[in-house]
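Key idea: predict the complex, not the pieces.
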Amino acid sequence: MKEQTEQKTKIAAFVCNWCSYAGADAAGTSRLQYDDSVWIVRFPCTGRIDPLFIIKAFEQGVDGVLVSGCHPGDCHYATGNLFARRRFTIFRTLMLFLGLDERRLQFSWVSAAEGAKWASVVNTVAGAVKELNGEPFTWAIPMPLRGAIGASDGEAVQTLRENIKAIEQTHRFTFGDQMIETREAAMTEELRLRAKQLLEAGEVNAVLGYANGTLPRTAIPLFALSLEATDQLVWNRHCRTNLAVYLARPLVRKLGKLAVVVKPCDAKAVLGLLQEHQVQRENVHLIGMACTGVEERGAIAPKCLSCTQRMPDLFDTKIGTAQEQPATRGNPIDETVRLLDNASPQERWNFWQEEFSRCIRCYACRAVCPFCYCETCITDKHRPQWITPSARSEGTMAWNIVRAAHLAGRCVGCNECARVCPANIRLDLLNRKIALEIKNEFDYEAGQSVESAPPLVAYRPDDSQEFIR
Amino acid sequence: MNIYLIQERHLREWLADIIASGRRVVAPQHGDDGFANYRDVENVEAMMFHGAPKPDFSFKRLLFPQTEQLFRYHWDEGRLVVEDLSADERASAAAGEERDKREVVLFGAMPCDAASRLAFDHVFLADPPDPFYVRHRRNLTVIGLGCDHPQPECFCTSVGLSPVSTKGCDIFLTPLEMEVCNGVDSSPGYVTEILTKKGEMLLKNVEGEWIKPGRQEQKVYLEKLKAAREHKMRSEMLPRRELSPSPEAMKNDFENPIWEEIARTCLSCGVCAFVCPTCHCYDLTEERDGHIWSRCRNWDSCGYGYFTLHASGHNPRPTAMERYRQRAMHKFCYFLEATGANMCVGCGRCIKFCPVGLDIYQVRARWQ
Amino acid sequence: MAMRNPYIPSILTVAELRDETPDVRTLRLRMPTNGNSVNWQAGQFAQVTVFGVGECPFTFANSPTRKSFVECTFKLMGKVTSALREVGIGESVGLRGPYGNFFPAEDWRARDVLFVGGGIGMAALRAPLQFVLDHRNDYGEILILNGARTVADIVYKEEMKEWSAYEGVKLVRTVDPGGETAEWDGEVGLVPHVFENIAPKPNGSIVVTCGPPIMIHFMLLTLEKLGYRKEQVVTTLENKMKCGFGKCGRCNVGSVYVCKDGPVFTAAQLEQMPKEF
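Result:
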């Protein structure tokens, strides 16, 4: 017999126990031949398949992943696969946006009776993955990119970067309005007055707002616990921090009822926290600010350019009057998302590897996110260790993917994660891409209503499933 | 101490020679992403000298990489085989940092960043000396450059340093004003102080007329120049007082509820520690690559909740308050007690990058 | 010159294992075969590696007077201890150390020594206790007060009989109220209360105590009430540690590094430290 060599192509097939595993079994008992590059991993239900499993498989060096479960309506647990379908719709979008070739991540419904379908799906998937053989695919971020020192900017995505820069340049607007300082001063006065009233009347124990930072053109969070402290409160275009992030923190909860200064985007985050039962409405008094946008790096923040909302949806007190909406000054974030969408998968993959290569794993993105309130984050769990703690590429890939995936349908686009990233990773683009997909697929926007179910803990029987074989 | 006068164009030639000899030259440069960092220099002609930007990150990863494999092991037919990675350069090779195997000449180190080496020496050379640090240190030569662009966050003068401090440098350059160079050369000149044997070695092989040996009057001139420079820089910095050398007042206020007020806005991320030139706390983790395991050292931050979390669930520093207090006190009390120096070089990066603008200088200055 | 890599553990094999309670086990480790035997003092600790899992600090549970092997008693707690329970006889673990300071047992000569331990805290007392018993004539009266939550949680049950067989050794065992069984012939009550009832005279004696933080807290109050000076009371601190030699920066309590300056502290020293442990 010929000597066996190690198999070159490896495909992980994550299948549900009840349908696809039985389907694979049926294929076997019917003696159907199918491609032997598939390694089957059995799960109770596709609903149990966390995107992390798929990430882990790629980390371990598989060339492709096939996820397969029961047809809609056939789930052993009634609806597990319907939830899974939504999750995979989003996860797949995210992975393709990162530049993963769509042939490497595939989905199918195979029932217990469909042995022949199983064989055919596997053959098709394996064939597609094998087509890719020889194409450079490294899940791991190439070494020379890693680390801020010695990081050379990749030439592969030079053009892409130049185009992104061009978008930034054309959307660089400064606050030209001469009136802005007068308005800010007036709103500051109004805010201080209101804060005093709230404290004096005993309606709240503290007012969470902004004070001037110690660096020029900065404002920092301030907890005003006393009447005197309210005199430090300010309102201006440097009030960037999304204060909703504090609402679920232990040191803050201790304070009891709190008044919080919110911009329209911050209010959306509060709304999301109410929706997810992290905050009780009666424990917060929302001071809604008439907002004309914040400043980042000396210009109007990109997120504010396309925002037309001048007052929060949700408030108990309103400060200032909504200003006339300026003509929209474009949407640089969406434009950049489109730019990446139109780039080749390989270009996108290179781009994101470069972006992630700068990650120093400080988790500032997590710390500033109002929705990252988990008591123990997945990165801090070590039994098992899903995400490698070192700044090695696998862990860094996994972290950045999982962060975005966990915020799917929840992120309200405050872009704090991208603002605070010391390595300037464009996390906002990942969040935005997912938000656009969710709007498109499930007609849902985060931060709009307390009652509606977040899209990834819901399903519709007729959710689109074009990507599933 | 030897002092030379070197023209910029000669410095460029010299650096090009260093690169040609197979060593790395790292210097503060803008990247294509538009952000300043200590980066590998490939083209000496194009690199910025005077007025190079303040890097977003310090160069500490040259001495203390964010991730470093300490040893590896695997099972060979049931027998455990342990491979020491400190003995040679394999550790860097294993981590893929091919270039780390080479000697590194750090050109244009900010005086604040250079001074941070002293803190690292204190920790990593103490018994038992850390062989990885020793190796990185041996491979690194630091050429400091007088700082001429203090940023709003800077407070080096408050912690006993200055924009012309030579601490931690092997060679230190002070740019001369153009007019001084007139008649000598058309390119700007640098007064070059050789501070260590290593610095001397680096310059030793450089021959030619362009190095003018130091004379007494030049020394005097240099002192004057540096003093004037320091004065100018100080005047350009945001008004921040010098911090008293005694940490007692702060230390005695360990139980003061003020810490809760200070840390209430802290979000417990790791930015401050990761961008800090002196923060050196680390975690040891087990990692696997195929059938080979390794023990890795990773940067860690006292800001994280799990930093001190016991397996039992008990946590001596359960909230941001205890953790921020630890950070401040480690820098300004505990380390000072042990070494006589603050574990802070006043670079202000933690202020600049803090998502909520916590200002460690202001915190420390409360106990002035 | 080659510099030693302080992170590399010696490899020891498990010679014996004994389950003290359902979740506490004692391992007896055979010295490394490569000749580098481990030398330690009672009170010091080591970093134990479960290969493929990680590393965790453990106090040496046996006295250097019984040094043909290393013993370590651990409670099933986190990632490493769970994996350590899976390590069987003949299998390898890594060990580096010893680290930290130790009990000044030499200075206790001629004095009465009172060992007060709660739960797994007994593991830290076993080494100095063995040391004292092995130099029985050098010391005065010995009291062993051992507390556990329930009868099932008592560690070193068999050894305790041996210890109490020495002359001049008094053994008092107690379980928390509700933790007793019908057959239980020991005390019922919290350790500090039982100690207060016994109320040994503080005349120059040494109290070595270790246990859960809450027990230590009340024990120190009781000792103060009974007139013990803080210098007479010795305990050990346990903090999360990674390196074991004062570099990784997480075990400090104020400016004291538990791994280097500790883990053994007198109550007088503890009083000087910030309350952050």
